[in-house]
């Protein structure tokens, strides 16, 4: 009788462990640098082709009102990693080197505490080398790529960084040409991480650098095949950078397929939730008289012509609206389009609820897991808060309040009626604006940043110079001849 009791207890334990394991899915988070809301072909872009991302969107959920935590690179990465909005974050400047504080909890450290393998591949942006903000001190078992965002502008640097150690890239001198294309190395490292960690729950973070930086891509990249019959790609009046940019977005599309195919190959597809997003709002690059909002119209609806005001660097919708797709076969219903208003600080609590990890008490984010899984009641933000340099913005459902400079009057917009933020209605709704201004005041606290162990920031400055490296010196020498 006692034997039967222990046997039953043993099988109950095994069952419980299996259930527990099932509650810890693998997590892949892909974030393309500066990929804009209207730069995907399922959004109607006339030029750029993204068939794999389009399929991804059809097989999962697409959010129409996802927002960046900040309108530029470094701060939003902090918002994402820590679950804190801009008024509480340790990184608010976009200098590429401001570090997270020592022992500040991140998504990676939170998940590592419950047994996740953690890897990051791409651009970190939350602290240069020899600082308190390096990724290996914030929960990442492995981070490979760029720590500094200036370093990340070149796809042919002489080295990348692996857990603060330089890894040489053969035949490269920095600048816009070389032998070893850095993004290929970064992607292969990320795919290898997934292969190696397939038997344990893993968090694989891909803050990849394309299509931002210098617009360079190998001439033999498979992405060019998508454009071989397009007349515009053959037009000599269109700059090569414009053509390269389209191919780089399609390269990202190919990378998404690589990741999903690997998950299928390893029989992990149903055990893995995959996020695909941009980082901040679109930049109206490649502007001209013919295309005043940029050749690809990143902030212009190609179907209606309606525009998001502004772009990267400011707090109008153009600086904050990002593409956001999530896929998890069998758990997230396919073909969904959802208008939930949320931003990057919400990712940490979402992953905490998903995995049973303990989120810090001082975060500003709210879990969106009920919406993802279509289970339970979705809590919503009373208001969302942003600050960047001298700008402040607050979102309250359809209302958007913004102060572009400290001495300027606040503006108020009804985004349901005026998504382009053209008609300031602050005078008509003083009570609404007063509440939003009060929220803004309560949301800001003085910034406390991390520290550098080397007061000269020698390695960090070396990484920044590596953008050009010896290529710059060679270019100077050629000009002198």
Fourth-tier CATH superfamily name of the largest domain: Alkaline Phosphatase, subunit A
Mind telling me the C-alpha Rg?
23 Å
CATH topology of the largest domain: Alkaline Phosphatase, subunit A
Question: What portion of residues belong to β-strands?
Answer: 15-25%
**Number of helices, counting only DSSP H or I runs of 4 residues or more:** 13
CATH architecture of the largest domain: 3-Layer(aba) Sandwich
N-end to C-end Cα span? 94 Å
The major sheet is characterized as: 10 strands, mixed
Commentary on this structure:
The chain has 481 residues and is α/β, with parallel strands linked by helices. The protein folds into two domains: 24-382 and 449-480, Alkaline Phosphatase, subunit A (3-Layer(aba) Sandwich), CATH 3.40.720; 388-443, 2-Layer Sandwich (Arylsulfatase, C-terminal domain). The protein is 30% helix and 15% strand. The protein contains 13 helices and 16 strands. The chain has helices at 2-22, 51-58, 73-82, 107-112, 182-196, 231-234, 240-265, 317-320, 347-355, 369-373, 430-443, 458-465, 469-480; strands at residues 26-32, 61-63, 66-67, 117-123, 142-146, 159-162, 165-168, 202-206, 272-278, 324-327, 336-338, 342-343, 384-388, 391-396, 399-403, 411-414. The strands form three sheets. A ten-stranded mixed β-sheet has the order 7-6-5-4-8-1-9-10-2-11. Strand 15 (399-403) and strand 16 (411-414) form a beta hairpin. The radius of gyration is 23 Å and the shape is globular. The chain starts with a helix and ends with a helix. Mean pLDDT is 94; it is low at 1-21.
């Amino acid at each position: 009788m006692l034997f039967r009791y222990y046997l039953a207890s043993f099988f109950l334990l095994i069952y419980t462990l299996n259930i527990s394991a099932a509650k810890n899915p693998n997590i892949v988070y892909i974030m393309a640098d500066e990929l804009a809301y209207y730069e995907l072909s399922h959004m109607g872009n006339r030029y750029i082709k993204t068939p794999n991302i389009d399929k991804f969107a059809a097989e999962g959920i697409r959010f129409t009102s996802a927002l960046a935590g900040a309108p530029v690179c470094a701060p939003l990465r902090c918002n994402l990693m820590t679950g804190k909005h801009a008024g509480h974050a340790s990184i608010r400047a976009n200098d590429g080197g401001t570090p997270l504080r020592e022992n500040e909890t991140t998504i990676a450290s939170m998940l590592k505490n419950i047994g996740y393998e953690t890897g990051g591949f791409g651009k970190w942006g939350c602290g240069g080398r020899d600082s308190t903000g390096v990724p290996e001190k914030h929960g990442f078992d492995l981070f490979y790529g760029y720590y500094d965002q200036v370093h990340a502008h070149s796809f042919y640097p002489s080295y990348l960084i692996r857990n603060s150690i330089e890894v040489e890239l053969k035949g490269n001198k920095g600048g816009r040409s070389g032998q070893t294309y850095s993004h290929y190395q970064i992607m292969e490292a990320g795919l290898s991480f997934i292969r190696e960690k397939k038997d344990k729950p893993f968090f694989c973070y891909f803050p990849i650098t394309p299509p931002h930086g210098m617009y360079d891509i190998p001439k033999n990249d498979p992405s060019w095949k998508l454009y071989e019959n397009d007349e515009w790609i053959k037009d000599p009046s269109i700059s090569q950078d414009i053509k390269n940019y389209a191919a780089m977005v399609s390269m990202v599309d190919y990378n998404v397929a690589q990741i999903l195919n690997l998950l299928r190959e390893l029989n992990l597809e149903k055990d893995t939730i995959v996020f695909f997003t941009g980082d901040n709002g679109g930049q109206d690059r490649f502007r001209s008289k013919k295309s005043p909002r940029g050749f690809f119209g990143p902030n212009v609806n190609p179907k209606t012509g309606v525009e998001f005001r502004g772009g990267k660097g400011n707090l109008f919708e153009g600086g904050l609206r990002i593409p956001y797709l999530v896929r998890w076969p069998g758990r997230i219903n396919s073909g969904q389009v959802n208008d939930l208003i949320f931003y990057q600080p919400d990712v940490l609590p979402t992953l905490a609820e998903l995995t049973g990890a303990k989120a810090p008490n001082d975060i500003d984010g709210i879990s969106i897991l009920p919406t993802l899984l279509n289970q339970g009641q979705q809590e919503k933000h009373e208001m969302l808060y942003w600050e960047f340099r001298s700008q402040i913005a607050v979102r309250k459902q359809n209302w958007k309040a913004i102060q572009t400079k400290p001495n300027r009057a606040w503006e108020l917009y009804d985004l349901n009626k005026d998504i382009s933020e053209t008609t300031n209605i602050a005078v008509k709704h003083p009570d609404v604006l007063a509440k939003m201004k009060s929220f803004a005041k309560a949301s800001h606290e003085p910034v406390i940043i991390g520290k550098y162990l080397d007061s000269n920031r020698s390695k960090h400055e070396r990484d920044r110079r590596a953008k050009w490296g010896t290529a710059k010196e060679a270019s100077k020498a050629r000009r002198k001849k």
